[in-house]
Write a structure and sequence with these properties.
580 residues; alpha/beta; ABC transporter transmembrane region fold; Rossmann fold; 2 domains; 6-stranded mixed β-sheet; 4-stranded antiparallel β-sheet; 21 helices; elongated
Length: 580
């Protein structure tokens, strides 16, 4: 029952399966103890009927008081154990699941995130785990425990009288059969509802991220109406799904309850024909009052189980994605970065085809070329943010595919145009470059990056919170914080996506000064957009259509009138709109 397929079906760990078994066990005990309470009532009525019909002595009330007290104590103890083995243990499982997902995501290649929508991932991490939490705590132990306890009671009932047993329990398999018949529809409805919820999250995220642009072009009504449409679609999809599920659950409940009528009719006939005594009939009626109670909840729970399989499947997609693994020790011979016949494709779209070049230690190597030529891809492949399809990339003679990404990235710093900052202080945003760095180290890096002049003007200096993604800072100030991080990390390799391309002249000059200190004596791979950067490079690699079209000294390439680089430089000098 609880094999590997069960684990995958409900996204459980080995510990989670063990906890589920405990929950099932104690649910069985609780149901049997409660049924035992019905047994005490049956014995009391049997003795009392003997007094009325046969003139026997009155029941020994002391015995029944003792049995009742024992039942109450036993019921309390078993219910406490059931709670602890379902809710209590499951919350630990949920904690481990969230930590496990975070750890797994940390190990996945960047290509995974490029293929998954942010709202979709957020829904998986938060919404799907929450749904599974409820299933693990409220459903699994209760549902399977009810199956087992009912089977035990059914065997006892059939031993007393098989005809009354059938009359009492025939509705249970029919009701569950009806629900299982609706399983495919329930899963389809759950998938549709999940997709609609993701579209709502996408719309909200998109609107919030672009709120200034939306206001600037007076398109508030358009975006809000589209968001309202998505919300209405989600609500409609959810209502349809719950209505369909509700119809099947209530129909199953009605069918199961028909067992009460068939038990009374069958029992009356058997009593009239002298096949069973009245007290046997009474016992079955007592059992009916209890045996259907767990199933009332189980019918609703099993519908939730069907829908949870969709969430479990989405969680397992993360665990099934191949991790970027490798050695946790890196001992390179220097820090040259060498591309050897590298090919790479996004899905079926080839971006690089047989690319070979070397970015040497202590030199600035500039990647130039038209938009879509593979410049940014090369930079990301160099740090193993993606894994290549063919060829090899070596850093200091070590194939980076053989090194665990987190170990590899300890030798890399990044300075890109799109700076990512957190709603925290200036100090903590810079400290991200080096875990455990002292305040003095942070401020030294900030001064080297020309941050000190604007930080001193902030209300609380380095302890000023800068807003979400540095909203309280200018573009140049945000960029200098990014450079300060890289300086603090002091990595031997720097990947630079021209940090000054979108800055004004004054800020560009300040950022260039900070960059000059950052890039000194390091292996630098820069994605070049402006010829100002290229002119200072030691080497230029020109990419075109995923190939290395030419490479060499920028001065020599510039003087070659037939070179692609010279042509690009001439176009930009003339003010042509060529994206490089």
């Amino acid at each position: 029952m609880f094999g590997e397929s069960f684990k995958r079906k409900y996204a459980l760990s080995d510990k989670g399966v063990s906890n589920t078994k405990k929950g099932v066990f104690w649910t069985v005990i609780v149901n049997l103890v409660v049924m035992g309470g019905m047994g005490i009532l049956y014995l009391l009525m049997n003795d009392y009927m003997g007094t009325l019909t046969e003139g026997k002595a009155l029941p020994n009330w002391t015995e029944y008081i003792v049995m009742t007290l024992a039942f109450l104590v036993l019921s309390m103890v078993t219910h406490v154990e059931q709670y602890a083995s379902t809710y209590g243990l499951v919350y630990g499982e949920v904690r481990d699941m969230r930590i496990g997902i975070a750890e797994r995501l940390r190990q996945l290649p960047l290509s995974f995130f490029g293929k998954r929508d942010l709202a979709d991932l957020t829904e998986t991490i938060m919404g799907d785990v929450n749904r599974m939490e409820h299933v693990w705590s409220h459903v699994m132990g209760y549902l399977y425990g009810t199956y087992i306890s009912t089977a035990i009671v059914a065997v006892i009932l059939f031993m007393y009288n098989w005809k009354l047993g059938i009359a009492c329990l025939w509705g249970v398999p029919v009701a569950f059969g009806l629900l299982f018949g609706s399983r495919k529809m329930a899963k389809e409805n759950a998938e549709m509802t999940k997709k609609a919820a993701i579209r709502v999250s996408d719309g909200i995220q998109e609107t919030l991220e672009n709120i200034r642009e939306i206001h600037a072009v007076n398109q508030e009504e358009k975006y809000l109406s589209e968001l309202n449409r998505r919300i209405d679609e989600h609500e409609s999809t959810m209502l349809k799904g719950e209505l369909a599920t509700g119809i099947f659950v209530n129909a199953a409940s009605v069918i199961m309850r028909l067992g009460v009528a068939t038990t009374i009719l069958t029992g009356a006939k058997l009593i009239l024909t002298g096949q069973v005594p009245f007290m046997v009939m009474f016992m079955f009626l007592l059992v009916i009052t209890r045996i259907y109670a767990p199933f009332d909840q189980s019918l609703a729970l099993i519908a939730e189980v069907f829908m949870s399989e969709v969430s479990a499947g989405r969680l397992m997609e993360i665990y099934d994605t191949e991790r970027a693994t490798g050695a946790q020790v890196l001992n390179p011979s220097g820090h040259d970065i060498t591309f050897e016949n590298v090919s790479f494709a996004y899905d079926d779209e080839k971006v690089l085809d047989g690319v070979s070049f070397t970015a040497r230690e202590g030199e600035v190597t500039a990647l130039v070329g038209p938009s879509g030529s593979g410049k940014s891809t090369c930079a990301r492949l160099a740090a193993r943010l993606w894994d290549i399809d063919k060829g090899s990339i070596k850093m200091g003679g070590v194939d980076i595919a053989s090194v665990e990404p987190e170990t590899l990235l300890s030798d890399y710093s990044f300075v890109f145009q799109d700076v990512m900052l957190f709603d925290d202080t200036v100090m903590e945003n810079i400290r991200l470059g080096k875990h455990g760095a002292t305040d003095e180290e942070v401020m030294n890096a900030a001064r080297a990056a020309n941050c000190d002049e604007f930080v001193q003007k902030l209300p609380k200096g380095y302890d000023t919170r800068i807003g979400e993604n540095g909203a309280k800072l200018s573009g140049g100030e945000r960029q200098r914080i990014s450079i300060a991080r890289a300086l603090l990390k002091n990595a031997p390799i720097v990947l630079l996506d021209e940090a000054t391309a979108s800055l004004d002249v004054e800020n560009e000059t300040k950022v260039q000064g900070a960059l000059s200190r950052l890039l000194r004596n390091r292996t630098v791979l820069v994605i070049a957009h402006r010829m100002r950067t290229v002119e200072k490079a030691d080497k230029v690699v020109v990419l075109k259509d995923g190939h290395v079209a030419e490479e060499g000294d920028p001065v020599k390439l510039k003087d070659d009138r037939n070179s692609i680089f010279g042509h690009m430089l001439a176009l930009q000098t003339q003010g042509a709109a060529w994206s490089i």
